[in-house]
Amino acid sequence: MLFALRFLCAMAVTFTLSHTVVLAAPAKASAKAPAKATTQAPAQKLPWTLREHYTFSGGPLRLDYAKDNGEWRIKLFQEDSEQARMNPDLILKEVRFSIELADGRVLTNDMFGAAGETFLDRGPAVWEVAGEGTHYAIQFQPLEGLSVEHAVTMLKQWNFLLITLKVKNISENPISIKKIVTAEIPAGSLCGLSEQAEIGTCNMVFRGGHPVFSPEGLSSSLRIYDPVRQVIVNIALIPQGKAASGIFSTRESGQWHGRIESDFSPAKPLAPGASLEADPLWLSLGTAPALQDSQYSYLLYHFCKEGTTLDQPRAWVTVSDTAGLSRLKSEAGTAAALGITHALIPGNWESKPGSLEGGAPLYPRNINEAASALQAAGVTPGITLDALPAKSGGGHTAKSADGQLWNNPCVPEGKAAVKDRIRTLYSKGFGFFALEASAIPDDVLLAFGISRAEADTAAFSAAVEAVQGTKAAVLPAAASALPLNRDAWLAAASAAARIREGDIGIAPVGVLLNTDQTPDFETRLALQMWPGPFQFVDAPSGSAGRFVSALLARPPFRARPQDPCRTAPLIWLTRAGININPYVGEAIMQFSGASSWNVSDLECFNATGSLPVVWQDTEGKIARHDGVVIPAAAHATTLGLLNVLPEPMFCGISGEPMLGLYQAKKVQWDASKKILAGNLEGPFMKDAVAVFYLPNGMQPRSASLGGKSVRPQVSENWLLLPIDPAGNSFELHF
Fold this sequence. Notes:
The protein is an alpha+beta fold. Helix content is 16%, strand content 36%. The chain has eleven helices and 48 strands. The strands form ten sheets. Strands 1, 8, 9, 10, 11, 13, 16, 17, 20 and 21 form a ten-stranded antiparallel β-sheet that branches. Helix 9 (486-500) runs parallel beside helix 10 (521-529).
């Protein structure tokens, strides 16, 4: 399990974190065993000034954590005074938790708090992903046979908190848990924000370690940003694959409210003595939004790394469920001419679930004939499938009411059966697999004693293992299709950009196209930022086909949002392959509508305190920006960035989106020979010009493109070198 806190023996701890912890009212440890309690109405809560609580600091924000019932709130820092204690400047008034049982009963944090005295234990802990920290755990008195531990963990080297909730069955009978709501934010609880505040969400869920973007689905994070009040809060889930977790949010009568929950549906049975943990809640206060996004993405990568796939397709074509192989073969041939090199058989191909035989008349009984037909059309064949239907019975299967057999992927025999199912299809010629959410019924899951999310995660694990050592990819089936709308694609790209950098397989997003539809410039840029596969139902044609061909001719931008508090960020940073190369600059793309921003808030801000040089090509003249505030963007604008070094640097291709940095390969500086060399892979625009920065006093002795000597243009600190639209290798001798 990813989230594993290992508790150390009691010892003195030195805090060296950016978060300072203040013990507002010491909680006294007790060796007395908690007494059994029964359900009772929660007592009226005391004012915070009279409640024992811890206070955690994050920039100008403070989080209060109450010992009596695990409630927490967020406020702005105020100098200590009676007025401040009685009337704090609140951002979140109260956040609660609850546990929903399979029989419909809901046990709230207030009910647990009313069950008797709570005990708070503070001690050192280690999280295998993020290192050492301190654990503040509230142990509640038992209620309805359940013992609950609610805790906040602070890590030494990270400026975020983790909130966890663990439930243990201490009764003599099984108890089934349906949901654990780690954070309930009532209507009106979010307050104290200015009119300029932004509340954004990331509509990403996770299946088997693979991110799935769905604008109509659950959110994985909630971002609150108010530049006027200096409020920067990011609340997110770290999925563990045991529950369908997410953030639900709505607005009613102008008031925002929501809940963050782990859904174990249909129910997770706890045997006597067994425990269950909700997905950890990650919470960052006060740090710059881009840094928050970076730290959260780091943790997601460690959860998703089992979903690593180096050979993820860029795009594929498929057809509707009512079409068949002949239609797909025809569309695949058209798509191949546009650069779409993969074709996907939709999920209705199987004659009977588990049989691995095609259903007439749409597909041949021997499904390898379908794979061969698509290969003949010039594409790699893929297939959509439900991984869990079984062909024959055994101790690892159960039968649903309709007579269908289903594998239990959480036991070794069932996992092996799922792997055999995938390997058989691979042997028939299929090169990638899109796994659907299984149709396995709730009664079968209950018989297996597993949640739907557990079954899904185990199915993915088996499928990924089945294709290890091959070039085949396993991905979730598409959950959404987006129109040619800039903000829709910026939201999708923002959700997936960082996690894809770790070669994590991203679920495809469908593209909704009309034959004569061509997107505007900013929408084209937004689609270029999407790092996952595109799915097309039928091959694009007409002007839409020409657009798709041009889109796929270039690699994705691999850019990172710098204003991720917006659901559709408008300020993006890109690097050459995202690798930190000191001899290559960076670029910022501002979309129209972007607010003014401070250079020091950028992810690439030099921690030593020096600001990067900001430059722009205006009508063929390179000009530096003075000051640290970049004005709002009325139209799409590309800016260059570089940290000044004593050596020359490649800054980008003037006029290219994102300065063409993602097309720079192997830029290297040879200090002994004083040579800056690299390769620029096109296509570039007709009048493409490479821009280089020269330190004061440094001049080129010679320059070459593609091995041929050329004369560059030098002006002050800038060297300009016209290049071929197809790209060139370059060498600059100093």
